[in-house]
Amino acid sequence: KFGIHGNFFDGTIPVSFTNASQLDILDLSDNIFTGQVPINLGDLKALQRLNLEHNFLGSNASEDLSFVISLPNCSNLKILGFDGNNFGGVLPNSIANLSTNLDQLALGSNQILGKIPVEIGNLVNLYMLGMEFNHFSGTIPISFGKLQKLQALALSGNVLSGEIPSTLGNLTQLYELYLSDNQLEGTITSSLGNCQNLHLLDVGNNELIGIIPQQIIALPSLSITLNLSQNSLMGLLPPEIGNLKSISALDVAGNNLSGEIPETIGACLSLETLHMQ
C-alpha cells in the first residue's frame, strides 16, 4: 500500500511506481500532481485501488487518458478514481475491459469528450459510477440497464441528448440518480418508478416534455430531493405527491405546469424546500 493523499506533493507521478509489483493500493489523491499519468500502471498486476482524484493531472489533451488502456491488466482492480483533474480527450473503449471486480468508477469533473462507451454496461459489479461535469455527448447508453448493482449514477453537467432510457428502470438498487444540466429530451420514463430504493432524482435543467409520471411522484422512497425544474413539463401536479412523506426538497420550478396545487402536498411532512415558481 502507498497512500499520500491530502498533502502538497507536486511534480509528475514517477514511472518507477510500477517497480513495486506487489502494490495493491496507490492513493495519490488531493495533492497537486501535474502532467501525464504513467501509461504502464497496468504492470501493477496486484492493484486493487487506484485513486488519482483532485490533482492537476492531464492537460485537456487527446492523450491524457492513455494510461487507462493498460489498466485491464489489473485484474483485481476494484476502485478507480481520477475525478477532479484536467483530463481531456475521449474515454477509451478499453475502459470496458477493466476488471469485472470493479465496483467504483469515478471520472467526474474533467474535460472528457465524446460518447459514453456502451461497453461500460459490461462492468456489472459497479455500485458507483460518476461521470458528471465533463463534455460527454450523445445518448445515455441503454446498456446501463445491465448495471443492476448500481446505487449511485451521476451524469449531470454534460451535453447528453436523447431520451432517458427506460432500461434505467432495471436499476432497482439505485439510491441516487443525477441527470441534470444536460440536453435530455422526450418524456420522463415511467420505468423509474421501478427504482423502489431511489432517494434522490435530479433531472433539472434539461429539455424534457410531457406530464410528470405518477409512478415517479408516488415513489415513497424519495427522501432527499426530487428536482424536475427548468424543463417543459406540462399538466397537473399529480395528487400522488402526497406519497412523498419523507421528501426534503421538491423543485418543479420553470416548467409549464397548470391547475391547482393538490391538497395532498400537506402530507409531505418532511418537506424543507419547495420551489414552484
Task: Give the topology, please.
Layout: E1 2-3, E2 10-11, E3 25-27, E4 32-35, E5 49-51, E6 56-57, E7 79-81, E8 104-106, E9 113-115, E10 128-130, E11 135-138, E12 152-154, E13 159-162, E14 176-178, E15 183-186, E16 200-202, E17 207-210, H1 214-217, E18 225-227, E19 232-235, E20 249-251, E21 256-257, E22 273-275
Parallel strand pairs: 1-3, 2-4, 3-5, 4-6, 5-7, 7-8, 8-10, 9-11, 10-12, 11-13, 12-14, 13-15, 14-16, 15-17, 16-18, 17-19, 18-20, 19-21, 20-22
Please tell me about this protein's structure.
This protein is mostly beta strands and 277 residues long. It has two domains: 133 residues, Leucine-rich repeat, LRR (right-handed beta-alpha superhelix) (Alpha-Beta Horseshoe); 139 residues, Ribonuclease Inhibitor (Leucine-rich repeat, LRR (right-handed beta-alpha superhelix)), CATH 3.80.10. 1% of the residues lie in helices and 25% in strands. It has one helix and 22 strands. It is elongated, with a radius of gyration of 21 Å. Keywords: Glycoprotein, Leucine-rich repeat, Membrane, Repeat, Signal. Its main location: membrane. InterPro entries: Leu-rich_rpt (IPR001611), LRR_dom_sf (IPR032675), LRR_R13L4/SHOC2-like (IPR055414). It comes from Vernicia montana.
